[in-house]
Amino acid sequence: MKIGIIVHSITNNTYSVAQKLHDKLIETGHNAEIQRVSMVGGDRPEGKNIELENPPDVSSYDALIFGGPVHAFSLAPAMKMYMEQMGSLQDKKVALFVTKGLRFEWTGGTRAIGQMKKICQSKGAIVMGTGIVVWNKQHDKKIAEVAQKFSNLF
Ligand SMILES: Cc1cc2nc3c(=O)[nH]c(=O)nc-3n(C[C@H](O)[C@H](O)[C@H](O)COP(=O)(O)O)c2cc1C
To answer: Which atom of ligand 1 lies nearest, measured to the CA of 72?
Structure first.
């Protein structure tokens, strides 16, 4: 199964989770690759005048993992824009994760996952699992848990 890990990341927290997921998926016998959602002119947190640079194509993957940071209690604008614009996910299995700075999952994490879920389902995907990684002392443990969980989904 070819799995695409598609992430947007400004300070590389989300990207580093993607790398760990990638390694775990390869270790468990999957074919996985990471693609970044980037903005023309460099990644930045603003939500205005976003133009995406070579947005990743979802069509060549059997399954997908989407990841992004929480910004202002929601999914980061560039990732939301990318997901709204991406092609069909009809009958593809997907998993979703976000990274965030504030301690509790409900300070944006739950909402961002809900936004991603809604977009994926509207494009025909089957959402298999989700994860929220709070960037604190415990984040390595949480990343390992999410990697373990996701490696059993596909
Ligand atoms: C503009 C901005 C808004 C943010 N808003 C939130 C927020 O509402 N809730 C939260 O938990 N973290 C928030 N954060 C923290 C980021 O979600 C966190 O640092 C994340 O891991 C960054 O991911 P990245 O390194 O992949 O860009 C915010 C960060 C920025 C830059």
So the answer is: 8
